[in-house]
Amino acid sequence: MRFILLSILFCLSLVLSGYAEKKFKLTSFSRIFFDDNVFMRAAGTPDQTSTFYFSQSLGIDGKFFRDLITLKAQPEIRHRTVDSKTLVFGNIGIKSKYEITPKLILDSANTFSHSEREPSDIDDDIDVTYFMNKSSYELAWQPRYLLKLKGGYENYVKRWSDNLPVGSGTELTNGDFTKNTYSFTAEQILGKRFILELVGKKSFLEYNGVRGAIDTDMYYAQFSYVMNPSTIIKINYGGIDALVKDQAGNLTEYSTPTYGANITYFTERGTVIGLNTVYEVMDSSVAYWNMKENLKTALIVKYPITPKLEVSAMGAHLITNYKDIGNRYQGLGLEREEEVFVSSVTLAWKYNQFHYAEVGYQGLHLFNKDADVYKNKVFFGYRWVF
Known about the structure:
By secondary structure, this protein is mainly beta. The chain is 4% helix and 66% strand. The chain has an 18-stranded antiparallel β-barrel.
């Protein structure tokens, strides 16, 4: 794929050209997993497959050209025992910041990744993965000390490794898409503790092949309150206007509120507590719908028990609604609600700044009227920074 090769070549050229500055860090991360449902089979399905697998990744962090460019990459090799198969995943990202004038700053970023498939109703022994590439640019202008204006553009490309048949039919999922988003933000600082942001975004998403598209206009106001040096609270509210096109070319207009809230608490000692909720409209990886609504709530906790021993936990609850107005097919009136719980807990022991080990659990539980999916993983890992 052309965009994959271009991303890799661009990243390598930056690494080689900035190598002489030697501002980089390498991290070796080795883990052994036990996965009780590696192919994400539905509960009650015969021959639900479990496996051990070994994961070896290499983290690369570097800064080049007087810290104007930041590079982060984490290639990963996985080998599983159930079928003696080796897979390659990972991500690579580049960020840059350029000061055109003291009041005019240009930020750019590009991220490429290869990841496991997302939770869905797929139930098979095929390794369905996806490739993702995001390129973004933001120009920020600060005409006054307390006022900042931002204009942005993002290109999002997603490609699946397999184009599977839909149900028992001959039509294909056609989940590949290209999305272009344009945004504008006005940020005003009010006093010493308050920040008001007005945000507008316009996006155009079109699926490859014959499937349809979804265009959205999103606008909201976000209010931030810096309660104290350790606590920040954010709330936002607005609306989304969408235009959904099915595979026959029929257009449907749709509007819904969008809202979110976030509270973050952190200390110098290393304690972090974050609670976030958001309601949004986005593309669907399930082939019967081109659009879905998400209500996501997540809690993140990180606590240093001792200077060398740390526990971190994450829990997320996701309610997804697939409505008839987002149907790929005309006149079927298909609807579905899906509920997903994602959780993890990790206990890490840091021997020194170069070596530490960790043990943990990761879980995914999915519920809908068609099938339930349970996936649990436990792991042991060792990191070496050099």
